[in-house]
Amino acid sequence: MLGELAVTEVERLLQSEPIARIGCHVEGRTYVVPIAYVYADGSLIGHSADGLKLRMLRKNPDVCVEIEHIDDLANWRSVIAWGRYEELSGGEAELALDLLMARFVTLIPSETILPSRATAPSTHAREVAGRPSVVYRIRLKEKTGRFERSQ
After folding, report:
1. Residue 65, burial from CB neighbour count under 10 angstroms (0-12, 13-18, 19+)
2. Which residue from 44, 70, 72, 92 could staple onto 138, CB 3.0 to 4.6 Å apart?
3. Which residues pair with 40 in a beta bridge?
4. What are the residue ranges spanned by the domains of the chain?
């Protein structure tokens, strides 16, 4: 059975999954990339090393997001959302980093998923894998969800 997720199911999926895929589009080129995130106050909060994704988002802050949970090919849930990218600084960035660390510190970290301050507070998450980094928020404006369940 195919169907649409209720608003509460959309919110639950956004809260429960740690990885989203974002689509950026600039000058006729589309780039889709996975991000680690935490969902808070209707926004995705992320942390990234400087690179192509951030360069594209700075040029065109409008973004499409996809989040999914797949049990098998006949049992899955997916959310598509549209939002706007913004970089955080100061106290807002500090609070966002705290949310990210609380979300991911219990998971097995990779070199790029946790802000560097999680292991070395003095670095204050200014770099990831030796590259400058940014704390950002994607304010979601529109969300829709679909599912398939075997009967």
Report:
1. buried
2. 44
3. 43
4. 2-148
Instruction: Name residue 131's amino acid.
Output: R
Residue 45 to residue 85: CA distance in whole angstroms: 10
Residue 147 near residue 5 (C-beta atoms within 8 A): yes
Q: Give, rounded to a whole angstrom, the gap between the first and last alpha carbons of the chain.
A: 7
Residue 72 has pLDDT above 70, yes or no: yes
Question: Is residue 136 packed enough to be buried (19+ CB in 10 Å), middle (13-18) or exposed (0-12)?
Answer: buried
**Is 2-148 assigned to CATH 3.10.450.50?**
no
Helix (H) or strand (E) holding 56: helix 52-59
Residue 130: both structure tokens together: 């030796």
pLDDT tens-digit series, residues 30-52: 999 999 999 999 999 999 988 99
